Amino acid sequence: MTAIHMKISPASSFPPPHRVPCRFNTVHCSTQRIGINGNGNGSVNGSTNGKATFPEKDPLLHHATLASAAPRPRRIILVRHGQSEGNLDESVYTRVADPKISLTDKGKGEAEAVGWKIREMIEKDGADDWKVYFYVSPYRRTLETLKSLGRAFERSRIAGMREEPRLREQDFGNFQDREKMRVEKQMRLLYGRFFYRFPDGESAADVYDRITGFRETLRADIDIGRFQPPGEPHGLTLRVFLMRWYKWTSDQFEGLNNLGNGGMIVMEKGYGGRYSLLMHHTEEELREFGLTDDMLVDQEWQKYAKPGELNYDCPMLNSFFTHFENEGVEALEC
Questions:
Q1: pLDDT value for 39
Q2: pLDDT for res 292
Q3: What are the catalytic residues?
Q4: Taking the mean position of all CA atoms in its chain, how far away is CA 26?
Q5: How far is residue 64 CA from its own chain's centroid?
Q6: Measuring CA to CA, which residue among 34, 95, 94 is closest to residue 61?
């Protein structure tokens, strides 16, 4: 599940190691008006003529957004759903549609526990004016996870939620034959986890494509000050989300390990304004998740870089082009 934690500060100032909190004003969620947050004064009005609109594509709204410099959420938190009936008994997939599989009682307890863990992490910042937003997959087990997780937050702390179909689990086909699925998973190991497509289902590459679309929506929501975050990517979807955000390669994806039920990965805003996993997690935790030396070097760079900056050190390029070592070149401008 992806939750967005907002501790709002002016976009122009982010002195390490702490940010000075300021007040979050209002979010207007209607087709007629979008509140631009930051100074509390800007807004964009426009008639929709009764039709749905896409505010991230509105040039007037985009201009106002740039002018108001909407602050960025402090954290993007990815949470896997709690234990489901399918995790406990795989035969459930043969008789219950994947989107309708529920959590077990244990799974609901895991979800509530991670909610309190998130709250504890936020409260350690010492700010009073924080809220959380959620994007959640429409699958029953993820909605139940969010409902249990949300018990850790009173209404005044939850700024909103959105059901987001692009965050759903990888599609393995419809009702699944257990023996056939066992063979297919063995085939996937031989073919490669990222590119293997299940018959009547998806490959991880297919999930990457829809996560790319969601990522652009999320970035637009952040840029226009809407702050409507993600709810709960599933195990593979969570890893693909990180892959797409940090531009990891398919080989690097293959080396990532799945999170356990109720596990979470925290993308926290660094000193320059970009999100880094190393702001919250230790190097050992990220290595256990599957990050390589090159990926950790990039996460260290993300801690201090500003949005829009390029990493001219290019650790991944230096690993790919092995002739640099022979030439005595340590870095490549790209």
A1: 32
A2: 94
A3: 81, 169
A4: 23
A5: 26
A6: 34
Residue type, 269: K
- Using alpha carbons, list the distances in angstroms from residue 233 to 80, 146, 312, 326: 6, 11, 31, 43
Residue 195 sits at φ, ψ, to 5 deg, of -100, -15
Give the C-alpha separation, 273 to 44, whole Å: 26
For the chain, how many residues are written?
A: 334
- Which positions of the chain have pLDDT values less than 50? 8-57, 59-68, 228-232, 329-334
The answer to whether the beta carbons of residues 65 and 36 sit under 8 Å apart is: yes
Give the Cα separation of 122 and 137 in Å (integer): 23
The whole model's pTM is what? 0.65
Rounded to an integer, what is the distance from CA 22 to the centroid of its chain? 25
Distance of alpha carbon 171 from alpha carbon 112, whole angstroms: 26
CA gap 141, 306 in Å, rounded: 37
Record the tokens describing residue 325, joined without a space: 């070592």
Distance of CA 1 to the CA centre of its chain: 8
Closest-CA residue to 171 (of 100, 107, 232, 99): 99
d(CA 228, CA 183): 40
- Exposure string of 42-56, with b = 16+ CB inside 10 Å and e = fewer, is bebeeeeeeeeeebb
Whose CA is closest to 8, among 38, 43, 35?
38
Structure confidence at residue 51 (pLDDT): 42
For helices 140-149 and 105-123, what crossing angle results, to 10°?
A: 50
CA proximity to 165, closest of 99, 107, 228:
99
Query: Looking at residue 256, what DSSP letter applies?
Result: P
Report the C-alpha dihedral over residues 82, 84, 89, 91, rounded to 10 degrees.
Answer: -140
pLDDT value at position 96?
95
